[in-house]
Each structure stands twice: as structure tokens, then as C-alpha cells.
Amino acid sequence: MNRLPSFFVSHGAPSFAIEPGLAGPRLTALGRELPKPRAVLIVSPHWMTPRPQVGMVERPGTIHDFGGFDPALYEIDYPVHGHPQLARRALERLQEAGWSPRPDERRGLDHGAWVPMLYLYPEADVPAFQVSLPSRLDAESAWGFGQALAPLADDGVLIVGSGSLTHNLYEFRGGYGAHGHHEAYAVEFAAWVRDAVVSGDTTRLRQTLALAPHAQRAHPTAEHFWPLLVAAGAAAASLPATVIEGGITHGVLAMDSFVFGSAGREGHGDKSIV
User: Fold this and answer.
1) Residue 179, class by beta-carbon neighbours within 10 Å (0-12 exposed, 13-18 middle, 19+ buried)?
2) Are 218 and 168 in contact (CB under 8 A)?
3) Which of 49, 69, 111, 200 has the greatest number of CB atoms lying within 10 Å of its CB?
4) CA–CA gap between residue 198 and residue 243 (Å, rounded)
């Protein structure tokens, strides 16, 4: 198998699981287009630990790690298999890179993992396992974390950083955009990041939270941005990237996703999949 690309996905609110919007069908189309991986490795901000942990579960459960949403969400089960063998390789790669990882043989998939997987692989026919996001990261170490995982792409593993292109929970919970209005800051921040990604400007991308317009408002805390740098760091030699346009939901959640690597650009150049 040729080297797989890496992928950043904006997983939005948990309600994305039942409200596909623009992004859902496009993620499903992407899952059909990409070479079928042996497994998907997902890094999500909904599993953060001081030292990285790697999920080794044969049948990871579906974790409903949220409250106050449509009751239908709590009935969703994503019955995917894990892949302990490839998870062990991830553990070894992180160990070699000095991250001192630990195995985890109990935890299932949080919504940052199973919600996008519902669209990418709706038949749950591709194994998936999670690697926790280290809780103390900056832009350079998030990039380095992706670089440490990068060799797995040669083993048929699709490396996915699952986060959110914008993530202001105060405004999301406060009903901003309740009448279909998109907040200008979210549009401007998303456009800035998209330009950095498509131009392949890795230095600018790593400096997003310092340089991009409205960065502090788009990300009052950085944990939902770091998975973008993890995914990009896992494929630094393959920037620029393809954009999977997702629009904006709830007025403040930008849903664009990015595929880093040549397999994601076949037939598209460096343009958007729309």
C-alpha cells in the first residue's frame, strides 16, 4: 500500500452526528475516494492526558461524552473494531520519539472520534483506535507529535486529527447564530487558516494562534486547534492540502476539514472538494 495522507476534520458539536449539513456528505465522499486504510488513528481533544495513551481495545465502545443534546444522540452506537497490532506500532513510534506513551486497554471512542467516523466509514468496516492528545502542547510540540506518528502512514494507517476550526463554547452555548447568521470573525479566521494550508505555508500555519485575525475569539483555549497541527505535522512533506468545505454551523463553528498528502489531491489539484 502506498503512503496514506493525513487528515484534519472539524467535528463540530455532537449534533453533527444527526445534522450532516454540508460536511457530512463530503466526508462520506472522501471516505469512498481515499485508499481504504488498514486502520484509522484518531487524536481528539476529548481525550487529553499528561502523557500520551494509545487505545488497545479490540472492540472500543461508543462514548457519549456530552450532555444536554438531542436524546437520539445517546442511542447511537458505532460498532467498530479496534486494531491492537497497529496501536502497538503507534505506541512504539511515540516511545522512539521520546513521548513516554502508555497503553490503554479499556477506553472506547469519544465523540471527537466516532462522530466523524460515522460519515467517513458509515459501515464501521475500517478499524479505529485513539491516541490521546498530550495536555501540555504548544504549536511546535503539536507539530512534533504529528511527526512522531507519521511513519504509521506507511503502514496503511490514516492519521486523523479531529478538532474544530473554530471553537468558542461560550458563544455556541449562548445561541450566537441562532437565526442563521454567521459571525464574521469565524468566517475571517477560517479563511486565514485555509489560505495558510492551501499555500503550504507551514511556518504561518504553526503561528496561527499568534497571527490569525480573531484567533483568541476563535480559540479561547487551544486544544481544538492542536489536532490540525498534529495532522499537518504527520504529512509536512505533503503540504499544501485539499480543502473539504464544511461551511459554518451554529453561527460560530467553522466546519472545514483538510487532507494532507497526494492521495487526497488526486483529481483535485490543490483546490477544494465542494
Assistant:
1) exposed
2) yes
3) 111
4) 8
